[in-house]
Every structure is written in C-alpha cells, then in structure tokens.
Amino acid sequence: MGYDGTVKVTVVQLPPTQVIKICHVGPYDQLGPIFGKLWGWIENTGVQASRSIGIYYDNPDITPAKELRSAACAEVAIGFQLGDTGGLPIEIDQIRAGDYAMTRHTGPYESLEPVWTEFTAYIENSLRRTISESSPAFEVYVNDPADVAPSALITDLFMPLD
Q1: From CA 154, how far away is CA 145, in angstroms rounded?
Q2: Which of 45, 57, 64, 73 is at 20 to 30 A from 29, Cα to Cα?
Q3: Where are the beta strands (DSSP E) in the chain?
Q4: What DSSP string describes 46-66?
Q5: Mapping DSSP to helix (H, G, I), strand (E, B) and coil, where does residue 142 land?
Q6: What is the mean pLDDT of the chain?
C-alpha cells in the first residue's frame, strides 16, 4: 500500500516530550543507521525509552541534501538524566509543547516525501495556519520495521504551528 494522494489532518495540542537523540547532518534517508546505534545503546544499557522519533530541522526543498540536519530520537521520561553514553554523541532534548498539525501515513518510509509535500500544502492552504519556524517537524514511528512489512509501517507526521 503506497501513498494514495490524500491526507487527513488534525490539529493536536502536545505536551512537552523529552527525548534522547543522536544528531545527523546529511540526506534524511541516511538517518536509519543512526536509529540502530541509538536503540543498540538503549537496549545495552536498559534505559527506559518508548517511541522512536525522527526530528527534521530543515526543508529539503530549500536546504542542500548534504546540509540537512536531523536527529534519531527515543522518548524518555521528563527529568531523565543521561549517564555513560559509551562514546556515542547522545544528547537530551525536548520537543516543545504546543499546537501541531498531525497526519498518519501507512506504507514504506521511502514514500513519505509526497505525503510531507501535501501535508504542508494542506496546513497552509486549507487549515490556513502558519508553520512555526522556531520548532522542527518530526515523525513518530508507530511500529518497527523489523516486525512488519514496509507496506504496513505506520508513521505519524507532526508539523509545529504558530
């Protein structure tokens, strides 16, 4: 099941979300191995982490691929203290609370680009909302590509609103 050309968008208010992250600079499609490093560390240390979240700081339509900034993240409890990172460049960060436009995509990660394009256009043209420049967009990976076929992957997309 690929992208069918329609998005269903809701506006949700999110609480602050604390994450641990490893930052990446380069094409967004190279973030997958960074998640592998982060979750390998989480599993080896027994850190209590929940959702996998990809943060995307730049617009790939404007920023050259080699300069795109992103982060592989895992949600942790508010107040989590980072211990020994085993030499990995792991940081603590927080996704700000506030209004976000949200849509859900079912299908392979490789088919997300047109969803983001339509999602953004819908926010600006149909919702008539302004996308926040002060906070990044992010994706929540609802299920694990190790457990389900690419066609069954569920990704929730979030765009911050002013």
Answers
A1: 9
A2: 45
A3: 10-14, 17-25, 52-56, 69-75, 90-95, 98-106, 137-141, 154-160
A4: T-----EEEEE-S-TTTS-GG
A5: coil
A6: 93
Domains by residue range for the chain, with CATH: 1-16+97-162 (3.20.80.10), 17-95 (3.20.80.10)
CA 134 to chain centroid, in Å, comes to 16
- For residues 143 and 155, the answer to whether their CB atoms sit within 8 Å is no
The three-point CA angle 23-135-128 to 5° equals 140
CA distance 85 to 74: 14
pLDDT in tens, 36-82: 999 999 999 999 999 999 999 998 889 999 999 999 999 999 999 99
pLDDT over threshold 80, residue 149: yes
Structure-token match 């980072």, residue found: 82
pLDDT reading at 146 higher than 50: yes
Q: In what order do the strands lie in the sheet with 90-95?
A: 10-14, 98-106, 154-160, 137-141, 52-56, 69-75, 17-25, 90-95
